Amino acid sequence: MHNVIRDMTLWIAGESEKEKFFVKSGVQLKELPKAEKWEEVITDDFFNSMPMLRVLDLSDNVNLKELPVGIAKLVSLEHLNLSVTGIRKLPVELKTLAKLKYLNLEGTDDLEMIPQQLISNFSKLQVLKMEGCGYGCLLVLEEVEHLKHLNVLTITFRSASELEKASRFNKFFSCAIEVVSLEDFRDSRSLTIMALAKLQHLCTLTLSRCWDLEEVKIERNIIEGAGCFHSLRTIILDECNHLRDVSWVTFAPHLKVLLILECEGLEEIISEEKLGEVAELKGNSNLFSKLENLHLSGSPKLKTIYQHALPFPQLKEIYIKRCPMLKKLPLNSNSAKGQRLVIKGREEWWKDVEWEDESTKIAFLPSFRPV
């Protein structure tokens, strides 16, 4: 900033008794300094002089518990990011934001109240991100039915019944749902993922803390359906302690990242027995043909990734931690050809790995990086 402009700015700021300003000089500042108590900074009259503001990003401020009613003055606002904040409710005054096109409420765990018809009032809304939002997804889906321009949605379901009911909404399939998170399931030991398989734009799927879930069913309807999971690139499984295998991930032919954390009951990743029940998948050498990153951590019963060696033509990294019974990797001397594969893990695990043959061992010994 030019010195003259800087001095003028500080002079104007100094003349104001009401407004509060952040000043941090000489440190090549590129972003707003952290404020410990945002509620003291963003007061009701904070936005009075910003009628032309189009982008407001308040993300990653967990101390921000409430939005001031003065936000209604931002009549030109098009982009509002409230992700990972501590807000508990959205003020009804947001209805004045008629030009809003982007609303991000991801990671707002404490958000419990959104006024009725608020979401549906944003008639120009194109992007609505609500993964990890504390507010009920079904109530939101009822309102997004009326949003003609909505084309991107991220969302969290907290029960199998919620997921089943959501599949009845037209908007569930017509808009581009990119991220779905299934969290804290308590009402089902088995899960049918037919509805999710039909989501043509689904990129990321997370199953987290589904402690009672024992099985994700493989259905013939999925196999026969054109384009099932074709956009899915990332699958994350976290604390699903009763799952014994995750064979259903083979239905994501373009999967790039498979991240499995703290699934204590997991015994194998791909069950050859389950694949054998499906003629279309039996002996499929294209399993994980697009996989780039495989991360397995905290599965003490895990013995097998897959019974046979796989080509892994795109694989870049394998990370293994706290999986003491996993002694063999699905690799042979032809696996990951042309890739600089990195295998990360504990040294005590690595020294006990069993290899397909001596040539495989020689090929992959230089790939190891201790963690």
Automatic annotation (TrEMBL):
Domain of life: Eukaryota
Protein's UniProt name: Probable disease resistance protein At1g12290
TM regions (residue ranges): none
Domain Disease resistance protein At4g27190-like leucine-rich repeats residue range list: 227-329
Domain Disease resistance R13L4/SHOC-2-like LRR, residue spans: 49-166
Pfam families: LRR_14, LRR_RPS2
Presence of keyword Transmembrane helix: no
Coiled coil: none
Lineage, highest ranks first: Eukaryota, Viridiplantae, Streptophyta, Embryophyta, Tracheophyta
Annotated keywords: Repeat
